[in-house]
Fold this sequence. Notes:
This protein is of the alpha/beta class.
Amino acid sequence: MSVERDTASAPRGGVPKPGNAGPGAPRSAAPAGAARPLPARPAGLAAALAAEAPVLDVRNLAAWYFTDEGTVKAVDGVGFKLGKGKTLGLVGESGCGKTATGLAVLGLLPPPGRVVRGEAVLGRRDLLRMPEADLAAMRGRDIAMIFQEPMSALDPLMTAGEQIAECLEMHTALDRRERAEKAVELLASVGVPEPALRAKAWPHELSGGMRQRVVIAMALACDPKVVIADEPTTALDVTVQAQILDLIEDTQERTGMGVILVTHDLAAVAQAADEVAVMYAGVLVETGPVKDVYAHPAHPYTKALLGSIPVVGQAARQLVTIPGRVPNLARLPSGCRFADRCPLAESACRAVEPDLVDLGAGRRVRCILATGRAAR
Ligand SMILES: Nc1ncnc2c1ncn2[C@@H]1O[C@H](COP(=O)(O)OP(=O)(O)OP(=O)(O)O)[C@@H](O)[C@H]1O
Ligand code: SF4
Ligand SMILES: [Mg+2]
């Protein structure tokens, strides 16, 4: 077994500041449920590409908010690899740091947030140590984000078509007419009815679902290598959710795009993701192939999350609440962050924070009972 250690270091300089977010970025979260049995993602090109180097390699990322009330350690030593053509499902309760992880990778963490350590290597370049101008040029073209709040990602003074065309203008050689045509094509591909008409609509004239589709079209416009999709389908009805996930998967098969799917919807992860990363209070507590983790969750938090999925035939799509609350990230408890809510907690759990231990077969878990004390 090997261990991933969270090596604290002093805040460093050169961290990109939030600024012009580029295409698919904001000019400024809701649980769903699932049904058993959970279908596995079919093997295909994505599986064949798995052996290649990761398209995105995030290492020991820490991103904190420096507030008057204290330092909110929203992301506190997160690491994962995203394979070409693969989907990583990032799950966890509200406030665990999922969005902060995505924003940090893109250099879009708003003040008082700041990346304090880590790397996010895309291709051969560390996004976290890149001049803002270079990073801005990569957003949309190489890495894009579908934001949780579609309205905040759209410019109210530009039509839907103009916003998509703007992404294309920044990153392609298409002329004005071709960009306008491509924008309509993209709107059609994300299931917007009467796309030529909708391309001329202002954001406020579109429903929430339509706005979300425009944001998705913007993110996919330039075939980025990586898309961070933050609750991309929450605002959409179930049929459209499935359409959007299919569209993302088709794009992956075609271009080898890697996707980080941030969601509360564990069924969507089972359907669309290859790997799952379970986040709790700023850290990953369990990662691994979706099928294996869902069949045999090792961490008590993962078990609780999966145990709260509604069964087939139940109408409710909300996750059942796990007793207690995510701890205040500005005043973290000593030892295991889940101890106050864990039915298996014992005194040793509160002594030292467990490491994320590699169990082999692509699985990692942060729990002394799951890994055995000898492994620590
Ligand atoms: N601008 C901010 N200033 C201070 N703290 C913040 C700020 N934005 C987020 N936080 C805190 O950072 C932590 C992580 O927030 P984040 O939005 O990443 O959670 P999340 O996992 O995406 O939750 P959700 O599922 O509700 O979207 C939370 O404790 C949140 O309160
Ligand atoms: S380390 Fe202890 S408290 Fe934490 S999840 Fe494992 S058993 Fe529960
Ligand atoms: Mg969020």
